[in-house]
Amino acid sequence: MWPAAVGMTALPFLGGFYGSYISREPVKVWYPTLRKPSWRPPNAAFPVVWTCLYTGMGYGSYLIWKELGGFTEKAVVPLGLYGLQLALNWAWTPIFFGAHKLKLALVDITLLTVTVGATMVSWYPISQPATLLMAPYLAWLCLATSLNYCIWRDNPEKKEE
Questions:
Q1: Tell me: the pLDDT tens digits for 127-157?
Q2: How far apart are CA 126 and CA 108, in angstroms?
Q3: For 76-87, what is each residue's pLDDT tens digit?
Q4: Whole-model pTM?
C-alpha cells in the first residue's frame, strides 16, 4: 500500500512543478508590474504553502482511495471531483502567469474553489480526516480567489486593436 500512498501524495506536485516552471519568469518580470492589494502574501510564502497543500490533498486522496477499495464504482464521484479540481488547479498558473488572462484565471479559480468544496462534501461521509486535510486548501483558495479578483479589478486588461 505504501507505493499508492506515495504516488497519490506526490501526484499534485506534477502540476505544481509545471506551474512553477511556467511562472518563474513572469513572477520576476510581469507580476511586479501589477497593482496588488497590501494584504497579499509575500512571494516567498507561495512555495511553502503549496508544498503543504499539495501534500495534504494528495494524502487525503489516498485515504479516500484506500477507504473505497481503490478505483471502484463508489470512488467515481469523490475521486472524479478530486481529479477535476486538480485539473482546474493545474490550469490556473498557465492562464494567470503564462497567458496573463486575469479574468479567465478568476473564472478558473472560482470554479476550482467550488469544486474543492464539492470534493470535501463528497469525502466527508467516507473519511473525515481526508476531508480535514482539504480544509487548509479551501481556506487558501478563498484568499487566492480574493487576491485574483483584486488583481483583475485593479489591472484592466488592455484591449487588442
A1: 999 999 999 999 999 999 999 999 999 999 7
A2: 27
A3: 999 999 999 999
A4: 0.93
